[in-house]
Amino acid sequence: MPYTNGGRHSPELSVFGNDYNTPDGSCIRDYINVVDLAKAHVVAIERLLQNKNTSNYEYFNVGTGSGVSVLEIIESFERSTGEKVPHKIVGRRAGDIEQIYADTSYSNRELGWKSEKSLDETLLSAWNWQVSIMTQEEK
After folding, report:
1. What is the separation of C-alpha 85 from the centre of its chain, rounded to a whole number of angstroms?
2. pTM to 2 decimal places
3. What is the Cα 68 distance to its own chain's centre?
4. Which of 14, 34, 60, 74 has the smallest number of Cβ neighbours within 10 A?
5. What torsion, rounded to 10 degrees, do the Cα atoms 60, 66, 70, 75 define?
6. What is the mean pLDDT of the chain?
7. CB 15 within 8 A of CB 88
8. Distance of alpha carbon 108 from alpha carbon 32, whole angstroms
9. Which of 47-51, 60-64, 126-130 has the lowest mean pLDDT?
10. Strands, E, within 17-121: which ranges?
11. 29 and 67 in contact (C-beta within 8 Å)?
């Protein structure tokens, strides 16, 4: 799998920092499946079309509601796809936030929406899509 960095491909993934105050030292983010994200948008649009909105504009935090570290993402990818992810720990990037993930309680309550796909399902789906693109490019 190519690891994209500013439009260039790299033979290994760079993990920026392993000294954060997190269980494994890498940054924590909220990774959501694109299908779950799309479903949240559909539910929100239906709410508007049915005039169930409470004001002229509303905003909702959409995500899984729990964070996963960069190193956990690598482990999940390897487990779900059977592919090894060559990676190296490099220095922190300026401005990186240690942990950030969505508080989805309002979205869950108001929209009746909740993400459904697991991290393993999400990464396997993304990998299968990437493989299909690479296969098409080879033809």
Report:
1. 17
2. 0.83
3. 9
4. 34
5. -130
6. 90
7. yes
8. 15
9. 126-130
10. 28-29, 68-69, 87-90
11. yes
